Amino acid sequence: MIKKSTELSKTIAHALRHEPEQYGLKMDEKGRVFVHDLLNALHNMRKDWINLSEKDLMEMIASSDKKRFELQNGKICALYGHSLLKKIQKVVATPPKLLYHGTTSESAKIIQIEGLKPMKRQYVHLSIDKHTAYQVGRRRTNTPVILKVLAAKACSKGIIFYKGNACTWLANYIPIEYITKDTSNTCFSYDK
Fold this sequence. Notes:
By secondary structure, the chain is of the alpha+beta class. Helix content is 32%, strand content 18%. The chain folds into two domains: 77 residues, Arc Repressor Mutant, subunit A, CATH 1.10.10.970; 83 residues, Alpha-Beta Barrel (ADP-ribosylation fold). It is built from six helices and nine strands; from the N terminus they run H-E-H-H-E-E-E-H-E-H-E-H-E-E-E. The strands form three sheets. Strands 1-3-2 form a three-stranded antiparallel sheet. The protein has a three-stranded antiparallel sheet with strand order 4-6-9. Strands 5-8-7 form a three-stranded antiparallel sheet.
């Protein structure tokens, strides 16, 4: 069941973050699609998904360690991670004092010169704590660099932030003056 749930989550993430047209989905300005349209696409993809229901999607969302999707009023959306050409509209929010970004040492050097850019995504992704940033950084390297973002200060100077989910914040760009390398000696264990 977990493997099927992981495969389902990855497929839905691809559909809602990157290529909805490949699945025959039409998104609104907030990146939402009708649940019944997504289910029809999934039913046509794989025989073992023919009986998927909205309840199954709700269970997948509830069982996930990260809140990647939101299902409301018959529509579903990915909360962050989009690479679509048409920008998904997010609601402006006031961030916490500090946010974090986990990356490779090579990327950290570039970020400390150019600032944090969305790269292939629509928004810069920031974590609420060092541990989450570390986990994100571990996707690309065994020894991630953790950058600290002075989010409240940046916000007070006009940098716009958006809440992605409980652990993820988004921004269009973070200038270098609001980024420092986290030099604490915090050790993390990688458990996933």
